[in-house]
Amino acid sequence: MKPLQLALIGLGTVGTGVAKILTEHAERTSRRAGRPIEIRHAVVKNPDKPREIELPAGVVHTDVDKAINDPEVDVVVELIGGISPAREIVLNALKAGKSVVTANKALMCEYGDELFPVAREHGCTIGFEAAVAGGVPIVSGIGQALSGNQVTSIEAILNGTSNFILTRMLDADISYEEAVSEAQALGYAEADPAMDVDGTDAAQKLSLLMLLAGGTRIRPADFTRQGIDRLDLADLQYADELGYAVKLLAIAKLIDDRLEMHVQPTLVKYGRPLSAVDGPQNMIVVEADAVGKVWFAGPGAGMMPTASAVMADIIDAATGRAAETFRTLDLFGEGEPRELVPPSDVRMRYYFRFHVEDRPHVLADIADILGRNKISLASVMQHEAPEVEEGEIDSPFVVPLVVMTHHATEGQVGSAEKELMKLAALRNPWVRMAVAD
């Protein structure tokens, strides 16, 4: 059969991985695709830059338009990331009649509703398996393998960078800043890791998963998003002492036909599979009405895991599976409208770490405020402070006080925090995290 001709836009980490698979395992990919797959163009910023892969003369160049408009090209593989110029490149490729494979979750999340209709109008497809959870086949898992189900909940660790940082902080007894530096040195974090550590990346991925799960279009700006960039090592250590691991958890639940969604640092009880996910790994726990609960886990980033996901979409395009799937996959259409549960109505347990003056009645004052806001205490932990004789020092010691609550709403907690701010014995800052048992 006629070879499938590719235009790789970007030959960085993931692009190099794709090129390695295609050149080092050409016979295997040809057999599984039913025909050869060839790289006709590899568009880069600097063609003279040393690379781990060597391609035939003339394949590597800087002319995007030449690659997109080549009538021999069947599929454009966008691997440069970001919104611009990736959006313009994908649009132009689709309008030129080329199907697209991408690892760009930001582009899919923000502009999928623009790109998918253009693809359908021009008889093309868009594959984005690599956009969520790297090498974990979750897009096809939810979009195809679980298509006979109604997904009722997703609990997931979707950002390997944040998970690596949290793992290293606790295991190596190091600060957040030191763990970020390690992640950058190992290639798990960008020079500017903001989108990973502030929860944006995980929120975009959760948005895409819910779109796959039920056709519901929820933008990250519409639900609660908090990152790990304000956590201290002390909070990870206190959580560990209480029997929990801290994870940046992305959660979506269908409750009485309404959708609860949030991304935030969360205490996960030891013994749950999610608590054991360490380093740059991802895990997605999906619960659905027919199958029950299933787990997807594996490397969420890196050259070869992400390249593996890109290759799955390329092979689907070569075999024709992508055309059949895309034709019936109603993404970014009207979808099924779902009302979001207001953040103030979300119920969960909470972890608090207060800095308090070590003197009588402080705990009683805190408990009174929480109680009047219908928040009951599950446990309290305060390490013993030095014994000091009355009058020996001018002011009380300030000590950490850790409180775990029973279930309460975000609204109740918010009201309690307004009152807590007026307590003279409490010192800023204090920390609050969700708890998932």
TrEMBL record:
Q: What InterPro entries does UniProt report for this protein, alphabetically?
A: ACT-like_dom_sf, ACT_dom, Asp/hSer_DH_NAD-bd, HDH, HDH_cat, HDH_CS, NAD(P)-bd_dom_sf
Keyword annotations for this protein, in alphabetical order, are: Amino-acid biosynthesis, Metal-binding, Methionine biosynthesis, NAD, NADP, Oxidoreductase, Threonine biosynthesis
Q: Which residues cross the membrane?
A: none
GO biological process: one example: threonine biosynthetic process
Enumerate the active-site residues. Answer: K205 (proton donor)
Pathway per its UniProt entry is: Amino-acid biosynthesis; L-threonine biosynthesis; L-threonine from L-aspartate: step 3/5; Amino-acid biosynthesis; L-methionine biosynthesis via de novo pathway; L-homoserine from L-aspartate: step 3/3
> So where does NADPH get bound?
K105
Q: Which residues bind NADP(+)?
A: I9, G10, L11, G12, T13, V14, G15, T16
Domain ACT, chain residue ranges per copy: 351-437
Q: Which parts of the chain are coiled coil?
A: none
Quote the EC number: 1.1.1.3
Question: Which major enzyme category is it?
Answer: oxidoreductase
What does the entry list as the binding residues for L-homoserine?
Answer: E190
**Reactions that this protein is recorded to catalyse:** L-homoserine + NADP(+) = L-aspartate 4-semialdehyde + NADPH + H(+)
Q: Which Pfam families match?
A: ACT, Homoserine_dh, NAD_binding_3
Q: Which cofactor does it need?
A: a metal cation
From the UniProt record, which GO molecular function terms apply?
A: homoserine dehydrogenase activity; metal ion binding; NADP binding
Q: Which NCBIfam families match?
A: PRK06349.1
Similarity comment text for this entry? Belongs to the homoserine dehydrogenase family.
Q: What is this protein called?
A: Homoserine dehydrogenase
Species per Swiss-Prot/TrEMBL record: Stratiformator vulcanicus
